[in-house]
Amino acid sequence: MSNTEHQTQAQVKGAESKAAPSGPGPSKPALSPSVIALAGGVVAAGAIAGFLLLSGGGETAGTVERPALNLVKTSEIDKAAETLVPEEKEKLVTQAKACTAPLGNMRLSKMTANAGGVVRIRAGNYLSPAFNVAEGPINIAVPFPAPYEVGKGEIVVEGAAKDVFFELTPGLKIDTTGGVQRIPVIWNTSKPCGG
């Protein structure tokens, strides 16, 4: 082979190597660790927010603004049922004993000698019998004001009562002489049978 042929072959090989890349296409720059961490944080925050929304906000301890409605324990359902309206008593007791729709519990009592009055408790579509808050405390059972799994709802106190202590967790003073009193409540959804 002559010198000219060697040069021609070298030029052809050089042109081929420039025309056909020898590996995969151009590589994309890798994601930085801070971008990966940020994306992971957004996904984790979304998962936590979704869980809290589905579990009633994640609240389990009552506050002054949103007290907790306590459960009637399974062993106390029959006694608590005495305060339910007769038309719904059997259905509500059956559901509570089957742990499908537990009952909530509250206590009403006078705060002073001149306090008291007659009240009814509305919890969702349920309206309790009238209770005269006079001498001793009264324990009252009601269905939860929203599906139990939701973990929050509203209790409405109707009637004409003054300076009545409404025992939730924490308790609060009720005065319905000027109309109804609405109380946003929460409850712990982890023990549907009153554990």
Task: Characterise this structure.
Keywords: Membrane, Transmembrane, Transmembrane helix. It is a single chain. The chain has helices spanning 3-19, 33-54, 77-80, 86-97, and strands at residues 70-71, 103-110, 116-123, 126-127, 131-133, 138-143, 152-162, 164-167, 172-174, 181-186. The chain is of the alpha+beta class. The protein has a domain at 62-186. A hairpin with a 4-residue loop joins β8 (164-167) and β9. The model is unreliable at 45-57 (pLDDT under 50).
Give the SSE layout:
Blueprint: H1 3-19, H2 33-54, E1 70-71, H3 77-80, H4 86-97, E2 103-110, E3 116-123, E4 126-127, E5 131-133, E6 138-143, E7 152-162, E8 164-167, E9 172-174, E10 181-186
Separation, N- and C-terminal Cα atoms = 97 Å
**Average pLDDT score:** 80
Looking at how many chains there are and whether they match, the oligomeric state comes to: single chain
How helix-rich are the residues, as a percent range?
A: 25-40%
Give Rg in angstroms: 34 Å
Secondary-structure element string: HHEHHEEEEEEEEE
Ranges where pLDDT stays below 50 over 5 or more residues in a row are 45-57
Strands, count: 10
Shape: globular
Biggest pleated sheet? 5 strands, antiparallel
Question: How many helices does DSSP assign?
Answer: 4
Beta-strand content bin: 25-35%
Sheet/helix structural class: alpha+beta
Biased composition (Polar residues): 1-11
Keywords: Membrane, Transmembrane, Transmembrane helix
Region (Disordered): 1-30
Transmembrane segments: 35-54
